[in-house]
Amino acid sequence: MEKKRKLKPTQFVVQFFGVLILIFIAFQALLFSSSIRRPSGDGATAILHSLQHHQSAVAENQTATSLQSTRPVSISPETDAILFPDFEVLVLLRVNDGHPSPSDRPLCLFQEGYTSPANFSGELPSSGRVAFRCVVPNPLRGLPRILAPRVVFSDVVRYPAKELARWTFLAYESLSTRDDVIVFVKGVNRRSNRAAEDLRCVFHVPGAAPLRTRVTKSSQEVFRCAHPGAAKLGPLLDSSSRLGQGIGISLEVRGKKKAIPSVAEYRPAEKQSPDEEKSTVCACTMVLNVAKFLREWVIYHARIGVERFVLYDNGSEDGLSAVVDELNHGGYNVSAVLWPWPKTQEAGFSHCAAASKDTCRWMMFLDVDEFVFSPAWSEAAGGRLESVLPPPESRLGQLSMDCLEFGPSNRTAHPEEGVTQGYTCRRRPPERHKSVVRLEAVDPSLRNVIHHFALREGFVGAKPPTESRVVVNHYKYQAWPEFKAKFRRRASAFVADWTQEASAGSKDRTPGLGFSAVEPPDWSGRFCEVLDHRLRDLVRRWFCSPEEECRLPWETDLREG
User: Fold this and answer.
1) Where are the alpha helices (H) located in 435-523, listed in sequence order?
2) Which one in 238, 315, 331, 415 has a CA-CA gap of 20 to 30 Å to 299?
3) Which of these CATH numbers, 1.10.10, 2.60.40, 3.40.1820, 1.10.472, describes 170-266?
4) In a 3-state reduction of DSSP, which class is residue 418?
5) Is 0.85 surpassed by the pTM of this model?
């Protein structure tokens, strides 16, 4: 029988310390795992005291937003939250007295005590509720049910109770007109439009019997239905007032037991002032973190006759409101509408067309990197959009303009003097079209694709007269740091995101780029087939004095002087 080996003293010491090291590593792992779970102790106090660095970061982020009220803030218990792609969460609150201020330092409080900074987005147009954005903490992302977070402003915390609303199937916004109410719903019309006869609008408040009205139009994410009668609406108004919350609105689909989940609210149409004169030309665009481009776009288009600018803010975090305030101070008519819903450009433009019908005759649907231009605009004539619009008696309802796509023009950074000055080399053939639309000619369905609307029967679309030669300079392929920012998300519901491996041959893709935000070695010289200085030179003639060094108006603070 083999004898049992005795350990030498050195071997015993090595094994003993090895065991100690393993015990120490296991103990540290236990401490780490407990530190990322729900904090122990006194509820909110423990949470907030352990995350002061998060709150400081939130306060710094929010100094650039339009949180101006310093009055006490009263938060209604009514909270809705929607889970967007990439684990972004939009939280909707009803604030009874003023807006939160930066000193409130809000956090999103999730289940199990996890938190993330809550960034203020603005106020929704239909309900007046304020919106905050936050992200789902990593440890919760694999759970089968993620509950709606609460926005925490103080040591008083209520833990979340209901599940997050899913963005893929949701009534998210509404707009009341004189004749009907428009509801915007995600997930009903997918590949084709569901028949309006199969749908009903539902108006509801807890504690009152819901009201239903028929749907008259169903197209894309837009559904039009009749207002409920004033007499029938009374009980809902009473319940709404008693509970301190709005009247919810959603859709019911024939054969389904429940209405579609909704965060949308119904408000009766406001009376339009009969004395308000319509603007001849307005411009509508959807924006996301384009504040530094906005001055040039507004000032230039105001110069050619645009009287009002409507910005649908898709979740900007770059001080957009400060630039809007500056432009209004400078005498321009610019308004921003919070539109936080991802990939809903078409729905946003439908909302804009319906909401602006009483204030604008013609609406130009452009992006902020697109500039309307005609080589025929001489220095003497000045150049005005009205010169290409048809007379009121015409049945022309939409003008389509060719787009000229400009490349980086050997730029490696954003040109401080503006895109019209910095990008001067483009592709030869025109690509796509953008439009100016007569709002009274837009079809009631509000259907639109790539900045073009379906028109009412009897109206037609056309290009401007040949002698006008109006085009759109599209500064699409800019210096790489600017173009890379587009990889976050595409605005259109019908266009694949840049990182999505789909539609490789589509004109909506960038030729030769692929699906990742990696700069090609020759990017700055791409898309350069024709040198085109025409708009650059015209802008200098319009805005600069030949006797002085040229400093364009968007290079200065409009509040100076």
Assistant:
1) 480-484
2) 315
3) 2.60.40
4) coil
5) no
